[in-house]
Specification:
The protein is an alpha/beta fold. The protein has four helices and five strands, in the order βαβαβαβαβ. Helix 3 crosses helix 4.
Length: about 140
């Protein structure tokens, strides 16, 4: 039924649980998994050397987090014998990065957690998850845990 599943991840526990479900679903359907981390651009553009140093430190930390998050999904996929690809992109709107990746990679399902690192526990769904649900043209499976 599904051939290519997109798994947005931010390294959170909810994203990890969603990745586990996505890999199991991919194995069941003989599908490929693509994991994506969407990095927010540097939040402040200032003047002088301090700004450049801040940008480099921010990007280095973001890339490290992305690599860890993607490696977790890679390990799950490899352990299950599921074909895997990964991508890290930068967008000011995380949900747009997720949807752009789904389109570019021709994914036919997005599997994501109900909240990420920025989720507020009092909310039913995280804001990025809600935006993906609202704007996606492919099915979205939200893993609530």
């Amino acid at each position: 039924m599904f051939t290519h599943i997109l798994v947005p991840t931010d390294g959170s526990e909810k994203a990890q649980i969603a990745a586990e479900k996505a890999v199991a679903l991919a194995k069941l359907h003989g599908a490929k998994v693509t994991a994506v981390v969407v990095i927010d651009p540097f939040p402040y553009i200032g003047l002088g050397e301090a700004s450049a140093f801040g940008l480099q430190a921010y990007l280095a930390e973001a890339q490290t987090m992305a690599a860890r998050s993607l490696d977790t999904v890679r390990q799950l996929s490899e352990a299950s014998g599921v074909p895997f690809a990964a991508d890290t992109i930068e967008r000011s709107a995380v949900f747009e990065g997720i949807l752009d990746t789904a389109t570019a990679e021709a994914c036919d399902l997005i599997v994501m957690g109900s909240h990420g690192h920025s989720g507020v526990k009092a909310l039913i769904l995280g804001s990025e998850t809600q935006k993906v649900l609202t704007h996606s043209t492919v099915p979205v499976l939200v893993i609530k845990s």
